[in-house]
Amino acid sequence: MSSVIELENLVVKLGNRIILDRLNGSLTGQCIGLLGPNGSGKSTLLNTLLGFYPPFGGTARIFGGDLRGNIGLLRSSIGYMPESDAFIAEMSGIKFVRYMAEISGLPAREAMERAHEAFFYVGLGEVRYRKVGTYSLGMKQLVKLAQALVHGPRLLLLDEPTNGLDPEARQRMLQLVREIRDTRGVHIVISSHLLRDIEDCCDQVLILKQGRIAALCNLEEERKANRKFLELEIDRENGFVHAINELGCECASFNGGRLKIVLPENIAVRQLYQLAAEHTVQIRRMNYRRDSLEDIFLKAMEDKPEAREIASGRL
Amino acid sequence: MAVYKRTYKVYDGPLTPTGSRFLVLSRYSAAAFFESRWFTVFSFLCLVPVFIGAFMIYLVHNASVQLLLGMSLKAKDLIGNVWFWGFLQSQAWLAFFMALWAVPGMMSRDFSNHALQLYLSRPLSRIEYLLGKVSAVVIALSCITWVPGLLLFGLQAQLEGNGWGRQNLWLMAAIFIGCVLWIAVVALLSMALSVWVKWRIAASGLMLAVFFVLPGFGEAASAILGTQWGKLLNVPYMMTLIWTRLFRLPEHFRHGWRYDDMPLWSAWASVLGVCLISLLLLNRRLRAREVERG
Protein backbone atom coordinates (compact mmCIF):
# COMPACT_ATOMS: atom_id res chain seq x y z
CA MET A 1 0.00 0.00 0.00
CA SER A 2 1.42 3.42 -0.92
CA SER A 3 2.18 5.89 1.85
CA VAL A 4 -0.18 8.71 2.65
CA ILE A 5 2.24 10.34 5.06
CA GLU A 6 5.87 9.45 5.57
CA LEU A 7 7.77 10.79 8.54
CA GLU A 8 11.53 10.80 8.26
CA ASN A 9 13.42 11.81 11.40
CA LEU A 10 10.97 14.67 11.78
CA VAL A 11 11.97 17.14 14.51
CA VAL A 12 9.88 20.20 15.35
CA LYS A 13 11.08 22.84 17.78
CA LEU A 14 8.91 25.67 19.08
CA GLY A 15 11.02 28.27 20.79
CA ASN A 16 13.63 26.23 22.60
CA ARG A 17 11.40 23.23 23.23
CA ILE A 18 11.51 20.10 21.13
CA ILE A 19 7.86 19.20 20.52
CA LEU A 20 8.30 16.38 17.99
CA ASP A 21 11.43 14.32 18.38
CA ARG A 22 12.75 12.23 15.49
CA LEU A 23 9.47 10.81 14.24
CA ASN A 24 9.82 7.99 11.75
CA GLY A 25 7.06 5.98 10.20
CA SER A 26 4.86 5.38 7.24
CA LEU A 27 1.12 6.04 7.56
CA THR A 28 -0.78 4.07 4.95
CA GLY A 29 -4.31 3.64 6.32
CA GLN A 30 -7.52 4.97 4.82
CA CYS A 31 -8.33 6.50 8.18
CA ILE A 32 -5.40 7.15 10.50
CA GLY A 33 -5.85 7.94 14.18
CA LEU A 34 -3.45 10.17 16.08
CA LEU A 35 -3.63 9.31 19.74
CA GLY A 36 -1.84 10.61 22.77
CA PRO A 37 -2.33 12.47 25.99
CA ASN A 38 -2.56 16.26 26.05
CA GLY A 39 0.73 17.85 25.05
CA SER A 40 2.02 14.75 23.30
CA GLY A 41 2.39 16.56 19.96
CA LYS A 42 -0.71 15.49 18.02
CA SER A 43 -1.81 18.95 16.99
CA THR A 44 1.80 20.01 16.39
CA LEU A 45 2.19 17.12 13.95
CA LEU A 46 -0.96 18.21 12.09
CA ASN A 47 0.23 21.81 12.06
CA THR A 48 3.59 20.71 10.73
CA LEU A 49 1.93 18.72 7.96
CA LEU A 50 0.04 21.90 7.06
CA GLY A 51 3.26 23.90 6.98
CA PHE A 52 2.35 26.08 9.97
CA TYR A 53 5.52 24.98 11.75
CA PRO A 54 8.69 24.37 9.77
CA PRO A 55 10.54 21.11 10.50
CA PHE A 56 13.70 21.76 12.51
CA GLY A 57 15.18 18.50 11.31
CA GLY A 58 14.17 15.65 9.02
CA THR A 59 11.10 15.95 6.89
CA ALA A 60 7.63 14.62 6.15
CA ARG A 61 6.12 13.61 2.84
CA ILE A 62 2.45 13.71 1.90
CA PHE A 63 1.52 11.51 -1.07
CA GLY A 64 5.24 11.40 -1.82
CA GLY A 65 5.62 15.21 -1.94
CA ASP A 66 8.18 16.66 0.43
CA LEU A 67 6.88 19.31 2.82
CA ARG A 68 9.96 21.39 2.23
CA GLY A 69 9.38 23.43 -0.88
CA ASN A 70 6.06 21.89 -1.90
CA ILE A 71 3.76 23.06 0.84
CA GLY A 72 1.62 25.28 -1.40
CA LEU A 73 0.97 22.43 -3.80
CA LEU A 74 0.36 19.94 -1.00
CA ARG A 75 -2.11 22.21 0.75
CA SER A 76 -4.38 22.20 -2.29
CA SER A 77 -4.98 18.48 -1.68
CA ILE A 78 -5.52 18.86 2.08
CA GLY A 79 -8.68 19.73 3.97
CA TYR A 80 -8.21 20.89 7.55
CA MET A 81 -10.70 21.01 10.38
CA PRO A 82 -9.06 22.74 13.36
CA GLU A 83 -9.75 21.93 16.97
CA SER A 84 -10.62 25.43 18.12
CA ASP A 85 -13.34 27.70 16.78
CA ALA A 86 -12.42 28.87 13.30
CA PHE A 87 -14.99 30.73 11.24
CA ILE A 88 -16.11 34.16 10.10
CA ALA A 89 -19.05 34.89 12.36
CA GLU A 90 -20.55 37.67 10.21
CA MET A 91 -20.82 35.54 7.07
CA SER A 92 -23.67 33.22 6.22
CA GLY A 93 -22.67 29.57 6.32
CA ILE A 94 -22.94 29.09 2.58
CA LYS A 95 -20.95 32.22 1.80
CA PHE A 96 -18.23 31.22 4.25
CA VAL A 97 -17.81 27.75 2.75
CA ARG A 98 -17.95 29.12 -0.79
CA TYR A 99 -15.29 31.68 0.13
CA MET A 100 -13.02 28.93 1.44
CA ALA A 101 -13.59 26.91 -1.74
CA GLU A 102 -12.65 29.87 -3.90
CA ILE A 103 -9.47 30.44 -1.93
CA SER A 104 -8.65 26.78 -2.56
CA GLY A 105 -8.80 27.51 -6.28
CA LEU A 106 -12.32 26.58 -7.33
CA PRO A 107 -13.93 28.97 -9.82
CA ALA A 108 -16.83 30.95 -8.31
CA ARG A 109 -19.58 28.87 -9.95
CA GLU A 110 -18.11 25.51 -8.95
CA ALA A 111 -17.36 26.84 -5.48
CA MET A 112 -20.99 27.80 -4.98
CA GLU A 113 -22.21 24.41 -6.22
CA ARG A 114 -19.80 22.48 -4.01
CA ALA A 115 -20.59 24.67 -1.01
CA HIS A 116 -24.26 23.72 -1.29
CA GLU A 117 -23.32 20.05 -1.69
CA ALA A 118 -21.00 20.16 1.32
CA PHE A 119 -23.72 21.75 3.45
CA PHE A 120 -26.25 19.11 2.54
CA TYR A 121 -23.65 16.41 2.96
CA VAL A 122 -22.90 17.37 6.57
CA GLY A 123 -26.60 17.81 7.26
CA LEU A 124 -26.76 21.58 7.59
CA GLY A 125 -28.66 22.25 4.39
CA GLU A 126 -31.55 23.94 6.15
CA VAL A 127 -29.44 26.51 7.99
CA ARG A 128 -26.97 27.38 5.28
CA TYR A 129 -28.19 30.97 4.90
CA ARG A 130 -27.86 31.75 8.61
CA LYS A 131 -24.81 33.59 9.91
CA VAL A 132 -22.17 31.22 11.24
CA GLY A 133 -21.97 33.19 14.49
CA THR A 134 -25.52 32.12 15.31
CA TYR A 135 -24.83 28.38 14.93
CA SER A 136 -24.76 26.02 17.90
CA LEU A 137 -21.49 24.34 18.85
CA GLY A 138 -22.43 21.15 17.00
CA MET A 139 -23.31 23.14 13.88
CA LYS A 140 -20.02 25.01 14.07
CA GLN A 141 -18.16 21.70 14.15
CA LEU A 142 -20.11 20.56 11.10
CA VAL A 143 -19.49 23.80 9.22
CA LYS A 144 -15.78 23.35 9.94
CA LEU A 145 -16.05 19.90 8.39
CA ALA A 146 -17.94 21.32 5.40
CA GLN A 147 -15.22 23.91 4.71
CA ALA A 148 -12.58 21.19 4.99
CA LEU A 149 -14.41 19.03 2.44
CA VAL A 150 -15.64 21.63 0.00
CA HIS A 151 -12.65 21.68 -2.33
CA GLY A 152 -12.58 17.87 -2.55
CA PRO A 153 -9.24 17.19 -0.85
CA ARG A 154 -7.42 13.85 -1.02
CA LEU A 155 -6.33 14.13 2.61
CA LEU A 156 -8.54 15.32 5.43
CA LEU A 157 -6.93 16.40 8.71
CA LEU A 158 -9.44 16.45 11.57
CA ASP A 159 -8.21 17.84 14.87
CA GLU A 160 -10.45 16.63 17.71
CA PRO A 161 -13.60 16.59 15.55
CA THR A 162 -15.89 15.49 18.39
CA ASN A 163 -14.67 18.08 20.86
CA GLY A 164 -17.51 19.58 22.90
CA LEU A 165 -20.24 17.61 21.13
CA ASP A 166 -23.13 15.96 22.94
CA PRO A 167 -23.43 12.16 22.48
CA GLU A 168 -25.91 12.44 19.63
CA ALA A 169 -23.89 15.03 17.72
CA ARG A 170 -20.75 12.99 18.39
CA GLN A 171 -22.30 9.90 16.85
CA ARG A 172 -23.40 11.94 13.86
CA MET A 173 -19.91 13.33 13.39
CA LEU A 174 -18.33 9.86 13.64
CA GLN A 175 -20.91 8.47 11.23
CA LEU A 176 -19.97 11.20 8.74
CA VAL A 177 -16.29 10.42 9.13
CA ARG A 178 -16.97 6.73 8.50
CA GLU A 179 -19.04 7.58 5.43
CA ILE A 180 -16.29 9.78 4.04
CA ARG A 181 -13.76 7.03 4.77
CA ASP A 182 -15.87 4.41 3.01
CA THR A 183 -16.05 6.42 -0.20
CA ARG A 184 -12.33 5.55 -0.52
CA GLY A 185 -11.77 8.87 -2.25
CA VAL A 186 -10.03 10.50 0.64
CA HIS A 187 -7.58 9.58 3.37
CA ILE A 188 -8.39 10.86 6.83
CA VAL A 189 -6.14 11.68 9.77
CA ILE A 190 -8.02 12.16 13.04
CA SER A 191 -6.30 13.57 16.08
CA SER A 192 -8.09 12.72 19.30
CA HIS A 193 -7.54 11.73 22.87
CA LEU A 194 -10.76 9.68 22.82
CA LEU A 195 -9.91 6.03 22.19
CA ARG A 196 -13.47 5.22 21.25
CA ASP A 197 -13.54 7.77 18.44
CA ILE A 198 -10.34 6.39 16.96
CA GLU A 199 -11.45 2.79 17.37
CA ASP A 200 -14.77 3.52 15.67
CA CYS A 201 -13.28 5.09 12.57
CA CYS A 202 -9.63 4.26 12.05
CA ASP A 203 -7.76 1.37 10.53
CA GLN A 204 -4.33 2.59 11.57
CA VAL A 205 -3.22 4.36 14.70
CA LEU A 206 -0.18 6.41 15.62
CA ILE A 207 0.28 6.92 19.34
CA LEU A 208 2.46 9.81 20.47
CA LYS A 209 4.00 10.27 23.86
CA GLN A 210 6.07 13.30 24.78
CA GLY A 211 6.72 14.07 21.14
CA ARG A 212 7.86 10.57 20.23
CA ILE A 213 6.14 7.66 18.53
CA ALA A 214 5.03 5.26 21.24
CA ALA A 215 3.16 2.95 18.89
CA LEU A 216 2.23 2.66 15.26
CA CYS A 217 -0.08 -0.21 14.49
CA ASN A 218 -2.69 -1.46 12.11
CA LEU A 219 -6.04 -1.72 13.87
CA GLU A 220 -7.55 -3.86 11.13
CA GLU A 221 -4.96 -6.55 11.75
CA GLU A 222 -5.50 -6.20 15.48
CA ARG A 223 -9.20 -6.68 15.03
CA LYS A 224 -8.63 -9.76 12.90
CA ALA A 225 -6.28 -11.17 15.55
CA ASN A 226 -8.83 -10.50 18.28
CA ARG A 227 -11.61 -12.20 16.41
CA LYS A 228 -10.60 -15.49 18.07
CA PHE A 229 -10.23 -13.93 21.50
CA LEU A 230 -13.30 -14.27 23.71
CA GLU A 231 -14.33 -12.95 27.07
CA LEU A 232 -16.93 -14.99 28.98
CA GLU A 233 -18.78 -14.57 32.21
CA ILE A 234 -20.27 -17.76 33.72
CA ASP A 235 -22.37 -18.47 36.81
CA ARG A 236 -20.22 -21.38 38.09
CA GLU A 237 -17.11 -23.21 36.96
CA ASN A 238 -18.32 -26.86 37.26
CA GLY A 239 -15.40 -28.32 35.28
CA PHE A 240 -16.09 -26.03 32.34
CA VAL A 241 -12.55 -24.59 32.25
CA HIS A 242 -10.99 -28.03 32.19
CA ALA A 243 -13.31 -29.05 29.36
CA ILE A 244 -12.38 -25.98 27.36
CA ASN A 245 -8.70 -26.71 27.81
CA GLU A 246 -9.29 -30.28 26.65
CA LEU A 247 -11.04 -28.93 23.59
CA GLY A 248 -7.74 -27.30 22.67
CA CYS A 249 -8.40 -23.70 23.72
CA GLU A 250 -6.14 -21.58 25.88
CA CYS A 251 -8.21 -20.38 28.81
CA ALA A 252 -7.52 -18.14 31.78
CA SER A 253 -10.02 -17.70 34.59
CA PHE A 254 -10.47 -14.62 36.78
CA ASN A 255 -12.57 -13.62 39.76
CA GLY A 256 -16.31 -13.26 39.32
CA GLY A 257 -16.55 -16.16 36.84
CA ARG A 258 -14.72 -14.28 34.10
CA LEU A 259 -12.84 -16.30 31.51
CA LYS A 260 -10.56 -15.26 28.68
CA ILE A 261 -10.35 -17.79 25.87
CA VAL A 262 -8.22 -17.96 22.72
CA LEU A 263 -10.11 -19.98 20.14
CA PRO A 264 -8.02 -21.96 17.64
CA GLU A 265 -9.03 -21.73 13.98
CA ASN A 266 -10.80 -25.11 13.94
CA ILE A 267 -13.06 -24.48 16.93
CA ALA A 268 -16.35 -22.65 16.58
CA VAL A 269 -18.16 -20.65 19.28
CA ARG A 270 -21.09 -23.08 19.03
CA GLN A 271 -18.89 -25.78 20.60
CA LEU A 272 -18.48 -23.62 23.71
CA TYR A 273 -22.24 -23.42 24.07
CA GLN A 274 -22.45 -27.22 23.78
CA LEU A 275 -19.76 -27.63 26.46
CA ALA A 276 -21.57 -25.19 28.75
CA ALA A 277 -24.80 -27.13 28.33
CA GLU A 278 -23.05 -30.40 29.08
CA HIS A 279 -21.59 -28.95 32.32
CA THR A 280 -24.84 -27.13 33.22
CA VAL A 281 -22.97 -23.85 33.15
CA GLN A 282 -24.87 -20.69 32.29
CA ILE A 283 -22.99 -18.25 30.03
CA ARG A 284 -24.13 -14.82 31.15
CA ARG A 285 -22.01 -12.75 28.84
CA MET A 286 -19.84 -13.45 25.84
CA ASN A 287 -18.07 -11.01 23.59
CA TYR A 288 -15.08 -10.71 21.38
CA ARG A 289 -12.45 -8.73 23.06
CA ARG A 290 -13.11 -5.04 22.34
CA ASP A 291 -10.46 -3.26 24.33
CA SER A 292 -7.56 -3.88 21.96
CA LEU A 293 -6.83 -0.19 21.34
CA GLU A 294 -7.03 0.57 25.02
CA ASP A 295 -4.51 -2.18 25.70
CA ILE A 296 -2.20 -0.92 22.99
CA PHE A 297 -2.53 2.61 24.28
CA LEU A 298 -1.85 1.67 27.88
CA LYS A 299 1.14 -0.44 26.90
CA ALA A 300 2.44 2.44 24.81
CA MET A 301 2.09 4.86 27.70
CA GLU A 302 4.12 2.58 29.98
CA ASP A 303 7.84 2.91 29.56
CA LYS A 304 8.40 -0.84 29.28
CA PRO A 305 10.25 -2.98 26.76
CA GLU A 306 6.86 -4.25 25.62
CA ALA A 307 5.92 -0.72 24.64
CA ARG A 308 9.12 -0.40 22.65
CA GLU A 309 8.20 -3.61 20.83
CA ILE A 310 4.86 -2.08 19.97
CA ALA A 311 6.63 1.02 18.79
CA SER A 312 8.84 -1.02 16.51
CA GLY A 313 5.78 -2.67 15.00
CA ARG A 314 6.16 -6.12 16.58
CA LEU A 315 2.68 -6.47 18.04
CA MET B 1 -23.27 16.75 -9.32
CA ALA B 2 -26.76 17.37 -8.02
CA VAL B 3 -27.36 18.37 -4.43
CA TYR B 4 -29.46 15.28 -3.71
CA LYS B 5 -26.52 12.97 -4.43
CA ARG B 6 -25.10 13.23 -0.96
CA THR B 7 -21.76 11.57 -1.27
CA TYR B 8 -18.21 12.72 -1.01
CA LYS B 9 -16.44 13.33 -4.29
CA VAL B 10 -12.89 14.52 -4.91
CA TYR B 11 -12.95 17.72 -6.98
CA ASP B 12 -11.32 17.24 -10.35
CA GLY B 13 -12.68 20.27 -12.20
CA PRO B 14 -10.84 23.39 -13.36
CA LEU B 15 -8.85 25.53 -10.93
CA THR B 16 -8.17 29.25 -10.96
CA PRO B 17 -4.55 30.39 -11.52
CA THR B 18 -2.58 30.30 -8.24
CA GLY B 19 -1.17 33.78 -8.78
CA SER B 20 -4.59 35.44 -8.82
CA ARG B 21 -6.18 33.75 -5.79
CA PHE B 22 -5.39 36.67 -3.50
CA LEU B 23 -7.95 38.59 -5.54
CA VAL B 24 -10.67 36.37 -4.00
CA LEU B 25 -9.80 37.96 -0.65
CA SER B 26 -9.89 41.44 -2.19
CA ARG B 27 -13.28 40.77 -3.76
CA TYR B 28 -14.85 39.40 -0.59
CA SER B 29 -13.30 42.13 1.59
CA ALA B 30 -14.48 44.91 -0.72
CA ALA B 31 -17.95 43.35 -0.82
CA ALA B 32 -17.95 43.21 2.99
CA PHE B 33 -17.21 46.97 3.14
CA PHE B 34 -20.36 47.74 1.20
CA GLU B 35 -22.52 45.44 3.30
CA SER B 36 -22.60 48.35 5.73
CA ARG B 37 -25.11 51.01 4.70
CA TRP B 38 -23.11 53.67 6.54
CA PHE B 39 -19.97 52.82 4.62
CA THR B 40 -21.83 53.08 1.32
CA VAL B 41 -23.27 56.47 2.26
CA PHE B 42 -19.86 57.68 3.45
CA SER B 43 -18.25 56.52 0.19
CA PHE B 44 -20.66 58.65 -1.80
CA LEU B 45 -20.06 61.60 0.52
CA CYS B 46 -16.34 61.22 -0.13
CA LEU B 47 -17.03 61.91 -3.80
CA VAL B 48 -18.83 65.21 -3.10
CA PRO B 49 -15.56 67.24 -3.08
CA VAL B 50 -14.70 65.62 -6.41
CA PHE B 51 -17.94 66.83 -7.98
CA ILE B 52 -17.41 70.27 -6.46
CA GLY B 53 -13.86 70.31 -7.85
CA ALA B 54 -15.07 69.24 -11.29
CA PHE B 55 -17.71 71.97 -11.21
CA MET B 56 -15.10 74.56 -10.22
CA ILE B 57 -12.83 73.56 -13.10
CA TYR B 58 -15.78 73.72 -15.46
CA LEU B 59 -16.82 77.10 -14.05
CA VAL B 60 -13.46 78.81 -14.43
CA HIS B 61 -13.28 77.66 -18.02
CA ASN B 62 -16.77 78.70 -19.00
CA ALA B 63 -17.14 82.43 -19.58
CA SER B 64 -20.88 82.18 -20.31
CA VAL B 65 -21.68 80.60 -16.95
CA GLN B 66 -19.41 83.09 -15.17
CA LEU B 67 -21.23 85.92 -16.91
CA LEU B 68 -24.51 84.40 -15.90
CA LEU B 69 -23.38 84.20 -12.28
CA GLY B 70 -21.77 87.61 -12.37
CA MET B 71 -18.29 86.24 -11.64
CA SER B 72 -14.90 86.74 -13.16
CA LEU B 73 -12.51 83.88 -12.54
CA LYS B 74 -9.31 82.95 -14.29
CA ALA B 75 -8.23 79.33 -14.40
CA LYS B 76 -4.56 80.28 -14.40
CA ASP B 77 -4.93 82.00 -11.00
CA LEU B 78 -7.22 79.46 -9.43
CA ILE B 79 -6.46 75.91 -10.64
CA GLY B 80 -2.88 74.96 -10.03
CA ASN B 81 -0.61 73.18 -7.62
CA VAL B 82 -2.09 74.84 -4.50
CA TRP B 83 -5.62 73.96 -5.60
CA PHE B 84 -4.70 70.33 -6.22
CA TRP B 85 -2.81 70.22 -2.91
CA GLY B 86 -5.94 71.44 -1.10
CA PHE B 87 -8.01 68.84 -2.92
CA LEU B 88 -5.54 66.10 -1.94
CA GLN B 89 -5.64 67.22 1.70
CA SER B 90 -9.41 66.94 1.94
CA GLN B 91 -9.52 63.57 0.15
CA ALA B 92 -6.62 62.20 2.22
CA TRP B 93 -8.47 62.85 5.47
CA LEU B 94 -11.65 61.36 4.09
CA ALA B 95 -9.58 58.32 3.11
CA PHE B 96 -8.22 58.18 6.65
CA PHE B 97 -11.72 58.05 8.13
CA MET B 98 -12.77 55.50 5.54
CA ALA B 99 -9.85 53.26 6.55
CA LEU B 100 -10.64 53.87 10.22
CA TRP B 101 -14.12 52.51 9.57
CA ALA B 102 -13.32 49.64 7.24
CA VAL B 103 -9.93 48.14 8.08
CA PRO B 104 -10.33 47.14 11.75
CA GLY B 105 -13.64 45.44 10.89
CA MET B 106 -12.09 43.62 7.95
CA MET B 107 -9.19 42.27 9.99
CA SER B 108 -11.10 41.50 13.19
CA ARG B 109 -13.47 39.22 11.20
CA ASP B 110 -10.54 36.88 10.58
CA PHE B 111 -8.85 37.22 13.93
CA SER B 112 -11.66 37.24 16.48
CA ASN B 113 -12.66 33.66 15.61
CA HIS B 114 -9.26 32.29 14.52
CA ALA B 115 -10.21 32.08 10.86
CA LEU B 116 -6.65 32.87 9.77
CA GLN B 117 -5.64 29.20 10.13
CA LEU B 118 -8.34 28.28 7.61
CA TYR B 119 -6.91 30.69 5.04
CA LEU B 120 -3.37 29.54 5.61
CA SER B 121 -4.23 25.83 5.52
CA ARG B 122 -5.14 26.41 1.88
CA PRO B 123 -2.77 27.12 -1.01
CA LEU B 124 -2.43 30.74 0.11
CA SER B 125 0.71 32.20 1.64
CA ARG B 126 0.86 34.88 4.34
CA ILE B 127 2.07 37.37 1.74
CA GLU B 128 -0.85 36.56 -0.55
CA TYR B 129 -3.25 36.94 2.38
CA LEU B 130 -1.77 40.36 3.16
CA LEU B 131 -1.77 41.31 -0.51
CA GLY B 132 -5.45 40.37 -0.81
CA LYS B 133 -6.46 42.43 2.19
CA VAL B 134 -4.22 45.40 1.39
CA SER B 135 -5.41 45.53 -2.20
CA ALA B 136 -9.05 45.75 -1.05
CA VAL B 137 -8.15 48.78 1.11
CA VAL B 138 -5.93 50.31 -1.57
CA ILE B 139 -8.67 50.02 -4.21
CA ALA B 140 -11.28 51.56 -1.88
CA LEU B 141 -9.00 54.44 -0.87
CA SER B 142 -7.71 54.99 -4.41
CA CYS B 143 -11.26 55.51 -5.63
CA ILE B 144 -11.55 58.64 -3.50
CA THR B 145 -7.98 59.97 -3.71
CA TRP B 146 -5.64 59.72 -6.67
CA VAL B 147 -8.13 58.34 -9.19
CA PRO B 148 -10.48 61.37 -8.95
CA GLY B 149 -7.39 63.57 -8.53
CA LEU B 150 -6.03 62.43 -11.87
CA LEU B 151 -9.46 62.70 -13.47
CA LEU B 152 -9.67 66.32 -12.35
CA PHE B 153 -6.16 66.88 -13.63
CA GLY B 154 -7.22 65.43 -16.97
CA LEU B 155 -10.33 67.64 -17.04
CA GLN B 156 -8.28 70.72 -16.26
CA ALA B 157 -5.69 69.82 -18.92
CA GLN B 158 -8.43 69.23 -21.47
CA LEU B 159 -10.27 72.48 -20.78
CA GLU B 160 -7.15 74.62 -20.35
CA GLY B 161 -5.41 73.36 -23.48
CA ASN B 162 -2.25 75.14 -24.69
CA GLY B 163 -0.03 72.34 -23.44
CA TRP B 164 -1.04 72.86 -19.79
CA GLY B 165 -1.14 69.14 -19.18
CA ARG B 166 2.32 68.54 -20.63
CA GLN B 167 3.78 71.47 -18.70
CA ASN B 168 2.30 70.18 -15.46
CA LEU B 169 3.04 66.48 -15.77
CA TRP B 170 5.00 66.74 -12.52
CA LEU B 171 1.72 67.66 -10.82
CA MET B 172 0.21 64.40 -12.02
CA ALA B 173 3.14 62.52 -10.48
CA ALA B 174 2.73 64.54 -7.26
CA ILE B 175 -0.96 63.63 -7.00
CA PHE B 176 -0.21 59.96 -7.58
CA ILE B 177 2.86 59.65 -5.32
CA GLY B 178 1.32 61.78 -2.54
CA CYS B 179 -1.86 59.73 -2.47
CA VAL B 180 -0.14 56.36 -2.73
CA LEU B 181 2.16 57.29 0.13
CA TRP B 182 -0.75 58.32 2.32
CA ILE B 183 -2.73 55.18 1.41
CA ALA B 184 0.28 52.99 2.21
CA VAL B 185 0.72 54.59 5.65
CA VAL B 186 -2.97 54.52 6.54
CA ALA B 187 -3.62 51.00 5.20
CA LEU B 188 -0.53 49.34 6.69
CA LEU B 189 -0.78 51.09 10.05
CA SER B 190 -4.49 50.38 10.48
CA MET B 191 -3.99 46.73 9.48
CA ALA B 192 -1.04 46.29 11.82
CA LEU B 193 -2.92 47.82 14.76
CA SER B 194 -6.02 45.75 13.98
CA VAL B 195 -4.02 42.54 13.85
CA TRP B 196 -2.20 43.45 17.03
CA VAL B 197 -5.21 44.22 19.22
CA LYS B 198 -7.73 41.99 17.33
CA TRP B 199 -10.60 44.15 18.55
CA ARG B 200 -12.28 46.55 16.19
CA ILE B 201 -13.03 49.39 18.61
CA ALA B 202 -9.61 49.23 20.25
CA ALA B 203 -7.90 49.22 16.86
CA SER B 204 -9.88 52.29 15.75
CA GLY B 205 -9.02 54.03 19.04
CA LEU B 206 -5.34 53.24 18.64
CA MET B 207 -5.37 54.55 15.08
CA LEU B 208 -6.89 57.83 16.25
CA ALA B 209 -4.31 57.99 19.04
CA VAL B 210 -1.42 57.53 16.60
CA PHE B 211 -2.71 60.34 14.38
CA PHE B 212 -3.99 62.80 16.99
CA VAL B 213 -2.57 62.02 20.44
CA LEU B 214 0.97 60.97 19.54
CA PRO B 215 1.66 64.34 17.81
CA GLY B 216 0.71 65.99 21.12
CA PHE B 217 3.32 63.91 22.94
CA GLY B 218 5.78 64.80 20.21
CA GLU B 219 5.10 68.52 20.64
CA ALA B 220 5.43 68.20 24.43
CA ALA B 221 8.75 66.39 24.01
CA SER B 222 9.92 69.11 21.61
CA ALA B 223 8.97 71.86 24.05
CA ILE B 224 10.65 70.14 27.01
CA LEU B 225 13.85 69.24 25.17
CA GLY B 226 13.96 72.45 23.17
CA THR B 227 14.17 70.66 19.83
CA GLN B 228 12.05 70.15 16.72
CA TRP B 229 12.58 66.39 16.50
CA GLY B 230 9.44 65.61 18.47
CA LYS B 231 7.62 66.26 15.20
CA LEU B 232 8.91 62.90 14.02
CA LEU B 233 6.02 61.42 15.98
CA ASN B 234 3.57 63.58 14.07
CA VAL B 235 2.69 61.41 11.06
CA PRO B 236 0.17 63.84 9.49
CA TYR B 237 2.70 66.71 9.77
CA MET B 238 5.43 64.64 8.15
CA MET B 239 3.11 63.57 5.36
CA THR B 240 2.05 67.17 4.72
CA LEU B 241 5.69 68.22 4.67
CA ILE B 242 6.34 65.72 1.87
CA TRP B 243 3.23 66.87 0.01
CA THR B 244 4.25 70.53 0.18
CA ARG B 245 7.53 69.62 -1.56
CA LEU B 246 5.88 67.25 -4.04
CA PHE B 247 3.37 69.96 -5.00
CA ARG B 248 6.13 72.59 -5.12
CA LEU B 249 4.23 74.96 -2.85
CA PRO B 250 5.71 78.48 -2.69
CA GLU B 251 8.25 79.30 0.06
CA HIS B 252 6.00 81.82 1.85
CA PHE B 253 3.23 79.26 1.94
CA ARG B 254 5.43 76.58 3.53
CA HIS B 255 6.91 79.10 5.94
CA GLY B 256 3.48 80.39 6.95
CA TRP B 257 2.32 76.92 7.85
CA ARG B 258 5.72 76.04 9.41
CA TYR B 259 6.34 73.22 6.97
CA ASP B 260 10.01 74.09 6.72
CA ASP B 261 10.90 73.34 10.34
CA MET B 262 12.13 69.86 9.52
CA PRO B 263 14.35 68.56 6.73
CA LEU B 264 12.63 66.60 3.97
CA TRP B 265 14.71 63.47 4.55
CA SER B 266 13.43 63.25 8.15
CA ALA B 267 9.84 63.27 6.85
CA TRP B 268 10.57 60.46 4.40
CA ALA B 269 12.41 58.53 7.13
CA SER B 270 9.49 58.98 9.53
CA VAL B 271 6.85 57.91 7.01
CA LEU B 272 8.84 54.96 5.68
CA GLY B 273 9.65 54.00 9.28
CA VAL B 274 5.93 53.82 10.09
CA CYS B 275 5.39 51.58 7.04
CA LEU B 276 8.31 49.36 8.04
CA ILE B 277 7.18 49.02 11.66
CA SER B 278 3.67 48.18 10.44
CA LEU B 279 5.05 45.45 8.18
CA LEU B 280 7.12 44.04 11.05
CA LEU B 281 4.05 43.96 13.30
CA LEU B 282 2.08 42.23 10.55
CA ASN B 283 4.87 39.71 10.03
CA ARG B 284 4.83 38.89 13.75
CA ARG B 285 1.07 38.45 13.99
CA LEU B 286 0.01 37.05 10.62
CA ARG B 287 0.60 33.43 11.55
CA ALA B 288 -1.71 30.46 11.66
CA ARG B 289 -0.25 29.52 15.02
CA GLU B 290 1.48 31.69 17.56
CA VAL B 291 4.58 30.19 19.13
CA GLU B 292 5.26 30.86 22.78
CA ARG B 293 8.97 31.19 23.30
CA GLY B 294 10.30 29.23 26.20
Could you explain how this protein is built, in words?
The complex is a heterodimer of chains A (315) and B (294). With 315 residues, chain A is an alpha/beta fold. Chain A has twelve helices and 14 strands. Chain A has helices spanning 42-49, 67-75, 93-103, 108-122, 137-149, 167-182, 195-201, 219-226, 240-247, 269-278, 292-301, 305-311; strands spanning 5-14, 17-27, 31-35, 57-62, 65-66, 78-81, 155-159, 187-191, 204-209, 212-218, 229-234, 250-254, 258-262, 283-288. Chain A has a six-stranded mixed β-sheet, sandwiched between helices. A four-stranded antiparallel β-sheet of chain A has the order 2-1-4-5. A four-stranded antiparallel β-sheet of chain A has the order 12-13-11-14, with helices on one face. The longest helix of chain A is centred in the middle third of the chain and has 16 residues, at 167-182. Chain A is globular and about 70 Å long. The model of chain A is unreliable at 306-315 (pLDDT under 50). Chain B has 294 residues and is mainly α. Helix content of chain B is 72%, strand content 0%. Chain B is built from 15 helices and no strands. In chain B, helix 13 (235-246) packs across helix 15 (264-285). The longest helix of chain B has 31 residues, at 81-111. Chain B starts with 21 loop residues before the first helix and ends in a 9-residue tail after the last helix. The model of chain B has no long low-confidence stretch (mean pLDDT 88). The interface between A and B is large, with 51 and 42 residues.
Topology:
The complex is a heterodimer of chains A (315) and B (294).
Chain A: E1 5-14, E2 17-27, E3 31-35, H1 42-49, E4 57-62, E5 65-66, H2 67-75, E6 78-81, H3 93-103, H4 108-122, H5 137-149, E7 155-159, H6 167-182, E8 187-191, H7 195-201, E9 204-209, E10 212-218, H8 219-226, E11 229-234, H9 240-247, E12 250-254, E13 258-262, H10 269-278, E14 283-288, H11 292-301, H12 305-311
Parallel strand pairs in A: 3-8, 3-9, 6-7, 7-8
Antiparallel strand pairs in A: 1-2, 1-4, 4-5, 9-10, 11-13, 11-14, 12-13
Chain B: H1 22-33, H2 37-46, H3 48-60, H4 63-69, H5 75-78, H6 81-111, H7 116-120, H8 126-142, H9 146-160, H10 164-167, H11 169-197, H12 200-225, H13 235-246, H14 251-256, H15 264-285
